Description:
five-stranded antiparallel sheet, 143 residues, alpha+beta
Amino acid sequence: MTEYQQCFQGSFTSALRWPQLDELWNTLKQQSEGWYIYFVGKDLPEHSADSDSLMRFIEEIDGLLRKEHKHDYCGIVYSDDFQNPSMIKIFDPKNLGSSCGSSGQIIPPRWVLSKIPPDEIEDQAPIPMNRQRWWQNLWQVST
Length: 143
């Protein structure tokens, strides 16, 4: 098992409330170097993101989560360590499945931030077009 797989299958804690997510984002902004941004189901990132790209991702994913997860709690972002994270799993608010796993289907996170170069994560579900467009728009360079 690779280092990435060990970390991915390790212990994670949910940012249950929105203020906890804000604190996690602030921690990432302070530790912004060396993060890989992986959109599960797309190509693996070859390089870690620069600070500006990480900031853009945080801003955009936070907006998407708050817009589409219309609850007074977050509960769909998980970190291995809130003070010194090395991996963060972000689940798609439009594809949460059964949190207890009773359906027998494992729903992987849609996005993973990690300090470790990622390994491919299998996701049998097709990627919705709106998510693909969101991802492409996120990385389009303005002229």
